[in-house]
Each structure stands twice: as structure tokens, then as C-alpha cells.
Amino acid sequence: MNSKTLKQFKIPMVVVFFGVLIALYMIINKTPDLPVLGPKDFNPELVDLSLQSSGIPHTVSDFSLVNQNGEFIKASDYENKIYVVDFFFTRCPSICPIMSNNMEKLQEIFINDSTVKFLSISVTPEMDNVPILRKYADRHGVIDAKWNITTGDKKHIYNLARKSYFAAVDQGDGGLQDFIHTPNFVLVDTKKQIRGVYNGTEDEDILRLIDAIKILSR
């Protein structure tokens, strides 16, 4: 093989070598796709009867709540934000403290990411007034600009849980005897679409949620 032929042979090998490197880089750094979730993607028990057969692309609805500082919080406060929402109550002795501790960890991880926020909504608004929410917020290191601990009208809150965030298994009317208790953390993107649901009491799910938020932040 003469030198001219050898040079002609080496060029494709270099191209192949760099092609392999690029392919490996793309595989290693590939951003996994997160699904956009709608009513049909959830267990029917989690979806209000009026929405179970809906084929319309789902976005979370607007809301009007009051936070730990007595300020009105609306969907516009989360416009163009990635956020995690959960439903809790301050007197809960079981799953809620674990959920709030994990939300506090998420707040710390994304403290410098202005695109990420958090929203906790009380399912016992008749008991969780603003002073109680303020104490709860202080207990969990809430940073007001990142995380709202909220109360509001019970029917409105329960409609959000059932028809907007698909966080409640049972059906109900938001009346006096109605009660929701769920460990779900619901991830919402900047377009108000649900991108994942995670168990807020499980470390493995929290790690998955962290990865998902990072994916959306990119």
C-alpha cells in the first residue's frame, strides 16, 4: 500500500472515530423526554368523573389562594415557572411532615434557580388560618419567594385537587365531611402541563423528581 492510498484510508477512519465519539456523547447526554400527562394517563379513580373521557389537552386551572403572609396567590404568580404542588394540613401527624421536609429539601436544592417554585395547599382550610400557616412555614424553613403555604375556599381547593392536579382518589363535593389525604407531589411545567406525579414520602421518588425538574429547567 503506497503513501497516497494510506492517506486515503486514514481519512475515513478519523471520520468514523469522531463519529463514534459524537454518538457516545449524545447517548450519555441525551435528555430523557418527560410525558405530558392528561386525564387518560391517570388511574380513573384519580380523575373527576366529568374529565375521565376527555381528550382535550389538559392544563392546570387558575387558582386563588392565601399564603403564609396573608397575601393572595394566583396562577399568575407561577406564570412561566416550573413548580411542585402538594396537598397537606398542618395538624397531620403522619405523611405531611415527611412531605414538607422533602419539599424543604427541594427548595434548598433549587434555591438559586428562579424558574422553580413550590406550592402547598391545605386541605383543612377551616383550621389552617394565616397565623398557623406562618408558624408551619417557619418550622420548615420556607423562603417566601420560593414556596407558598396556602389556604382558601374549601370547594375551590378540592376542585383543584380533583379536576386540575388529579391528586385525590375519592370523589366528593368539597363539603363539610369531604376530606382529601394524598402523598402526591405533582410537577407542573411552564405551560401549566402536568409532567409527573411522585410520592412525596419516598426518597427514590424525590430523587426522580429532582432529575425531572432539572430536565425541565434545561
Can you give keywords for this protein?
single chain; about 220 residues; alpha/beta; Glutaredoxin; five-stranded mixed β-sheet; 5 helices; 7 strands
**Major beta-sheet overview:** 5 strands, mixed
Question: What percentage of the residues does DSSP assign to strands (E)?
Answer: 15-25%
CATH domain class of the largest domain: Alpha Beta
CATH superfamily of the largest domain: Glutaredoxin
Radius of gyration: 23 Å
- Count of discrete alpha- or pi-helical segments spanning 4 or more residues: 5
Assign the CATH architecture of the largest domain: 3-Layer(aba) Sandwich
Spatially, the strands of the biggest sheet line up as: 5-4-3-6-7
Can you offer a commentary on this structure?
The protein is α/β, with parallel strands linked by helices. It has two domains: 1-30; 39-217, 3-Layer(aba) Sandwich (Glutaredoxin). It is 35% helix and 16% strand. It contains five helices and seven strands. β1 (64-66) and β2 (72-74) form a beta hairpin. 34% of the residues are buried. Residues 13-31 and 172-178 have low confidence and may be disordered.
